[in-house]
């Protein structure tokens, strides 16, 4: 299953083609986040926690350990377990609105 956006910490020295190769191979092998070729990092675990606190309805696949805490990370007293990857499917963007829909024109009355 493919996703729209992938977040990981390492390896970092990859261009767009270089980043696509391990992701493509990983997805072809089934896409299990725990089996991804990316290196685990607590930074990815923290990212997952914040993402799920800010956007819980977002469709995400990760090997990060879910954390039920809603406290901001700067109040955390323990570190997040390492994770390899956070893969996200982004929702379709709604059409832009001008902000004038449903508004009535307001004018001045002359007496």
What does it look like?
The structure is a single chain. 23% of the residues lie in helices and 10% in strands. The C terminus is likely disordered. The longest helix has 13 residues. It has a three-stranded antiparallel β-sheet, with helices on one face. The protein is an alpha+beta fold. The relative contact order is 0.23. The protein has one domain.
What order do the helices and strands come in, and which of them pair?
Elements: E1 5-7, H1 16-28, H2 42-54, E2 59-62, E3 86-89
Antiparallel strand pairs: 1-3, 2-3
Summarize this structure as a short list of keywords or feature phrases.
111 residues, alpha+beta, 3-stranded antiparallel beta sheet, globular, disordered C terminus
Estimate nothing, just give the exact number of structural domains.
1
Order of helices and strands: EHHEE
Annotation field: number of helices: 2
Arithmetic mean of pLDDT: 81
Question: Unreliable runs, pLDDT <50, ≥5 residues?
Answer: 100-111
For the largest beta-sheet, the strand count, sense and barrel status come to: 3 strands, antiparallel
Radius of gyration from the CA trace? 21 Å
| Share in helix | 10-25%
Strand count: 3
Q: Strand percentage, roughly?
A: 5-15%
**Coarse morphology:** globular
Quick overview of this protein structure:
By secondary structure, the protein is α+β, with helices and mostly antiparallel strands. It has one domain. It has helices spanning 16-28, 42-54, and strands spanning 5-7, 59-62, 86-89.
């Amino acid at each position: 299953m493919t996703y729209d956006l992938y977040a990981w910490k390492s390896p970092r020295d990859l261009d767009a083609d270089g980043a696509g190769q391990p992701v493509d191979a990983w997805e072809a092998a089934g896409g299990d986040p725990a089996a991804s070729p990316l290196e685990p990092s607590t930074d990815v675990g923290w990212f997952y926690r914040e993402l799920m606190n800010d956007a819980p309805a977002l469709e995400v696949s990760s090997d990060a350990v879910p954390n039920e805490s809603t406290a901001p990370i700067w109040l955390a007293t323990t570190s997040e377990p390492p994770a390899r990857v956070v893969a996200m499917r982004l929702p379709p963007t709604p059409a832009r609105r001008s902000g004038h829909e449903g508004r009535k024109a307001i004018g001045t009355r002359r007496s």
